Amino acid sequence: MGLQGQAAIVGVAQYQPEKYSTAPRMFHLEQVADLARQALADAGLAASDIDGLCVNGPHFHEASSFVPAMVGEYLGAQLNFGEVVDLGGASAVAMAWRAAAAIELGLCQAVLCVIPQRMAPMGPDEDPMAMARAMRYGGHSTAFGAPEAEFDLPYGHMAQNTGYAMIAQRYKARYGYDEAAMAKIVVDQRSNACANPKAMFYGKPLSIDDVLASRMVADPLHVLEIVMPVAGGAAFIVTNAALAARSRHRPAWIKGFGEHIISKSPTYAPEMLDTPIGPAAKRAFAMAGITPADIDVAQIYDCYTITVLLTLEDAGFAKKGEGMAFVREHDLTYKGDFPLNTHGGQLGFGQAGSAGGMSQLIEAVEQIRGTCGERQVAHCDKAFVSGTGGVMSEQTALILMGE
Amino acid sequence: MSNKPQPAITDISRPYWDALKQHQIKLQQCNACALWVFFPRSHCPHCLSDALQWREVSGQGKLLTYTVARIPTLPDFADEAPQKLAVVELAEGVHLNTTLIGLDEDEICIGMAVKPVFDARGETTLLRFTGIDKTLSVIEGQTDEAAAETGQMQAKRQIHFKDFASLKALISDEFSPWSNRYSVTQDIINQFAALSGDDYWIHTDPERAKKHSPFGGTIAHGMLIQVLLSRLTIPLGWELTGFGNMANYGSNKLRFPSPVPAGSQIHGRARIKAVDEVKAGTQLTLEMCVHVVGQERPALINELIVLYMP
C-alpha cells in the first residue's frame, strides 16, 4: 500500500520573507506565474512540461471557486490533474503527496504545487478594511451555523495563540514542563536562521534568557515562541522519473506520506495531547520502510514551540513525555546531532501564511540536493517534513529521500 | 452593549441556549448509541444517528485545561483581562470552551472540580465555570462600575506652586495609579456627535459599523476621549496651593493610538514630564494617558500643559 517512490521534487522557488507593509503587492495569478517560472528554471524544465496543479483554494485573491481552471488558463497549461488544498499549514506536504499519487497513477508527468502569499494590489472599489475585518477573529468562521462562531467566539476563544497555549498547559499538567527546554527550540532554530541569509531573523541571534524574558502572550507561551507572520509565497514541482532524470539537481524522491485530520478545535478532540501527526507519521515511515532513527534532517512545522515538542514525541523521535529531555540532550542546529529546521524554521525564517509550511519542504529538498551552503548537513539522504494546520486540527508527514 | 461576538442561535441549538436562560444545562444524548453530544448538532458524531434527545445535566465537571491570556484575544474582551480561557469536561464526557470566573490564578489547577455559573449579563446567558467550593452560581445585571475602582482617595500632599525643588522632584517615568473607570456608552458618543457635528457612521451607526468597521462595531471619537479626561479623577497624590488662577495652556502632543469601542470602560493615569518657571508663573507638563480597561496600548496620550499663576 502507498507510494512506490517514483515521483520526485525537482524544482523549488520561494519569495524571501518580508514584512507585509513593505512587500511588493502582486496578484495571486501573477505570483503563481512568477513562482512557476522560477521553479521551472530551478528544475531545468519547460513550461510545456507542466500538466498538473495543486493550489490553495482559500485566500486565493482572484477567485474563491474554479481556482485550478483560472490558474491553468493564466499559465497557458493544459491540466490532467487540478486540485485545491485547504489544509492550512499542512497544505504543502498535502500537495506533495497528492501530486506524487497523481503521477504514480499515470495521470500526469509534472505537477506545479504553489501557494502565493504576498498581498494583491488594492482594487478601486475594494474596501481597505476588509482585510482587517477578516483578520479580526483570526481564522475563526463567523458564518451563521458555524459551531465555533456560536460556541467559541462569545467566550473569547479565537485565533491560534490561546488554543496552542491550552495544549501546552495540559502537557505541563500531565508530563511537567521545562520552559528553558522550550526556549532552546527557538534558540537553536535561531542559530540556523543566522546561517540563512534569506531568513527574516538572519543576523539576530537569541539566548534562552531572551526568550524567557519576552512578553507572555498566553501562559505558558512567550511571544518569541510564536511565529512572525510575513509576506512570501512558494512553489515546487513534482515530476515522474523520466523528467526527474533531466532535472538540474539531485531529485528528492517522495517515499512516504501520511495525513490525519482530527477536529477543527482541539477542545473537541478526544485527547488534545494525542496529536494528528502520530498516525500521519506512522503511516509515512511504514510506507518509506524506514524509522525515525534513520532520518538525517527533520523539518518540523513550528508555528509554536509546543507544536515542535509534540511532533518530536508523536512522530516517534522521542518518547511521549520525554520531548523536553530530548531537546535538552540534543544539539538541534545544523551542526548538531539532530538537525532540526535547518533554515531557521518558521520561528526564525518567518511564516508566510499557508506557504510557511512550504519553507520546511523546500529546505528538506535543498538539504538532499546538498545546496544549503553554510548550513548544509553532511550526507543528507533522508528528510522528514511535517505540516500542521489550524490548532492541531490536521497534520501531514512526508519522507523525502535522495535515492 | 459591548462589541463582543454574540452567539447566533440556530433551530438546532435553541434548546441549549433556552435552558441556560433558565439556569439549566441541557445536552443532547443519542438515542441510538447513548453517548452525549456537545456542541448541539443535527446528527450524533459517534454513530450519525439523527435521534438526539435533549436532557438536563448537572453541569459539574473538571478542568481539562486553561490558559491566562495576557493580551486580550480581541480588544472587546479587555474588560475580562486577563482572560481565563478554559476547556471543561462535563461528567457526561463532553468538552466545552468557556471561561473561569471567581477564581484567582493560584486557585486554578488542571483536573480541579468545577461547577457552572450562569452569566446573564449579555443578550444571551453564557455558561462559565468556577470552583466547586465557590458560592457563585449566577451573575445578573451589569456589575457596579462605580464601585469597581474609586476607593483611591487618599490624603494629598500639598505643594506650594513656587516650591520648584519639590515640584521638580515629582518628575518621573512612573505613572500615577489608575483613575476611576468611566463607561463610554453609545449614548455618550451620540451626544458628542450631535454637539460636535462629527456624526461619521463609524461612531454613530452600530448596524453599519458591525458590518463594515474593522473594529466590529462603533468606536468613540478621539476628541471625545480627550474631553472625557474631565470625568477621570487621577490620584496624583499631591495638589498645588498658593496660586491665584490656573489655565489649560494646551498640548504639546495629542495622539489616539488605539480605538475605544462603544461600551468599553476607560481609565486614566498620568506622570509629570516637566516643571518650568515661566514669566506668567509655573508651568507643569503632564502626560495623561487614557486606556480601555485592560489594554496595554493607550487610547489617548495627551501631553498637557497647565499654567499656575499668582
UniProtKB/TrEMBL annotation, chain A:
Segments forming a coiled coil: none
Pfam families hit by this protein: Thiolase_C_1
Any GO MF annotation of the entry: acetyl-CoA C-acyltransferase activity
Superkingdom of source: Bacteria
Thiolase C-terminal domain mapped to chain residues: 266-400
UniProt xrefs under InterPro entries: Thiolase (IPR002155), Thiolase-like (IPR016039), Thiolase_C_2 (IPR055140)
Annotated PANTHER family: ACETYL-COA C-ACETYLTRANSFERASE, NON-SPECIFIC LIPID-TRANSFER PROTEIN-LIKE 2
Name the record gives this protein: Thiolase family protein
Automatic annotation (TrEMBL), chain B:
Alphabetical list of Gene3D superfamilies matching this protein: 6.10.30.10, Hotdog Thioesterase
InterPro entries xrefs: ChsH2_C, ChsH2_Znr, HotDog_dom_sf, MaoC-like_dom, NA-bd_OB-fold, NodN-like, Thioester_dehydratase-like
Pfam families the UniProt entry points to: MaoC_dehydratas, OB_ChsH2_C, zf-ChsH2
Domain ChsH2 C-terminal OB-fold: 54-119
Domain ChsH2 rubredoxin-like zinc ribbon: 17-52
MaoC-like domain mapped to chain residues: 180-280
Name of the protein in its database record: Acyl dehydratase
Gene source species: Craterilacuibacter sinensis
Lineage start: Bacteria, Pseudomonadati, Pseudomonadota, Betaproteobacteria, Neisseriales
